[in-house]
Each structure stands twice: as C-alpha cells, then as structure tokens.
Amino acid sequence: MKSGRLIAVVGPSGVGKDSVMEGLAAADPSLHLVRRTITRAPELGCEDYDAVSVAEFEDMAARGHFSVHWGAHDLQYGIPASIQTVLAGGQDCLANFSRTALAAGDAAFAHFCVLNISARPETLATRLAARGRESQAQIAKRLAQATKPLPAGLTVMTVSNDGALDVTIAQAMSLLQPVRV
Ligand SMILES: Nc1ncnc2c1ncn2[C@@H]1O[C@H](COP(=O)(O)OP(=O)(O)OP(=O)(O)O)[C@@H](O)[C@H]1O
Ligand SMILES: O=P(O)(O)OC[C@H]1O[C@H](OP(=O)(O)O)[C@H](O)[C@@H]1O
C-alpha cells in the first residue's frame, strides 16, 4: 500500500492554518489532523494539542518521541512519531508546521508536501487582534516574522486566505485532490 502524504500547512501566524485544516478535515473525514505536542499552557486552545512542560518536551525529544520538532515564539512544538503508523496505513495527514522545519519534515516523511497559506499583512494584524490569544507585544513579534522564505525543492501548493474561509477551503481541497485520486 502507498503511504499517505504528510501535508505540512504553513504560513504566517494568524493566516488561518488551523481554520483551514479543520475545514479540510470536515470536508474530507479521511484526512487525519495531527495533534501536536506544545510547551503551551493547556487552556489556550485554538487547536487540540498535548500540553507539556519544557522539561517533559526535552525528555520526549531525547527519547525519539517526535518525527520533527522545532522552536518558535518562545515555545517548542513536536510532531509525534506515532503519526508514521497512520501514514503507513495510507491515510493523508494534515499538520500545522513551521516554515523553518520544512527541510526536516521532508527528510522525516516518505511523502511530504506543503500547503502554503498567504494573506496580506493587514489581514494578519486584524485576525490576531480579534483572536485575542496573544498580548499586543506578542502579536507585534509574530507580525514581524510574517515573511519567511520557504526552502527550495519542495512540492508547494499556495492558496490565499484573504477572502472567505469556505472559499479558501474549497481551493485548498482542489489543490490537494488531483494527486489523491
Ligand atoms: N478566511 C477567514 N476569514 C475571517 N477570519 C478568519 C479566516 N480564516 C481564519 N480566520 C480567523 O483568524 C484567526 C486566526 O486563524 P487561525 O488560528 O486558524 O490561524 P493560524 O494560522 O493557525 O495562526 P497561528 O499560527 O498563530 O496558530 C482566528 O480567529 C480565525 O477564526
Ligand atoms: O513562523 P513559522 O516558523 O513558520 O511558524 C512557527 C510556529 O508558529 C505557529 O505556531 P502557533 O500555532 O501560532 O503557536 C506555527 O504553528 C508554527 O509552529
């Protein structure tokens, strides 16, 4: 059986990665949403994740618990190695990824592709403020990192999320579809 694709969803903070991923999984229940491990307090929400302390995270990383892990926004994020079993079963998986971890992801997964979500700077600023998860200072730091290059040589599909979310989800689904049949 052909293994599933690890679809790394990237883009600047506030662009709508989690929203688009949820919409894709709702539209196609065969898509598996990867549950990340994050050193963030459990109550901050916006996505389902396993909240751990920094010490726990470092211990898990040392024991090979993650296929890929990275640091960003003063937090640590890990993609559990257990996802390899889901991929081996032929299921496509969606993971909220860091642009800085794409090369490591490409090395860690047999079938790796990138769904890059874009939006104008003013869209990002409005959405981060409305979401209210971060302080003004944290939002300013996130906006300063909005532009990060993607590494060359990867399969990248890009979709804008400046407009309505359901339009973005439909466009992303059609980008993902041709190679899924
Ligand atoms: N097309 C859209 N129109 C209006 N609001 C949207 C749209 N897409 C996402 N949002 C809203 O924008 C905010 C940011 O979205 P989301 O949390 O999905 O972004 P993200 O890219 O996962 O951010 P982060 O990387 O910071 O976790 C949320 O409040 C979400 O409801
Ligand atoms: O800017 P880059 O490196 O692409 O992404 C860094 C991190 O930012 C976001 O974190 P969060 O979900 O907002 O905490 C992404 O999910 C990723 O883990």
TrEMBL record:
Pathway field of the UniProt record reads: Metabolic intermediate biosynthesis; 5-phospho-alpha-D-ribose 1-diphosphate biosynthesis; 5-phospho-alpha-D-ribose 1-diphosphate from D-ribose 5-phosphate (route II): step 3/3
User: What function does the entry list?
Assistant: Catalyzes the phosphorylation of ribose 1,5-bisphosphate to 5-phospho-D-ribosyl alpha-1-diphosphate (PRPP).
Q: Which PROSITE patterns match?
A: GUANYLATE_KINASE_2 (PS50052)
Where is ATP annotated to bind?
A: G11, P12, S13, G14, V15, G16, K17, D18
Tell me if Transferase is a UniProt keyword of this record. yes
GO cellular component terms listed in the entry, alphabetical order? cytosol
Where in the numbering of this chain does the Guanylate kinase-like domain appear?
A: 4-177
Q: Which GO terms describe its molecular function?
A: ATP binding; ribose 1,5-bisphosphate phosphokinase activity
Asked if Nucleotide-binding is a keyword of the record, the answer is yes
Looking up InterPro entries in the UniProt record yields: GK/Ca_channel_bsu, Guanylate_kin-like_dom, P-loop_NTPase, PhnN
Task: Specify the protein name.
Answer: Ribose 1,5-bisphosphate phosphokinase PhnN
Enzyme class (EC, first level): transferase
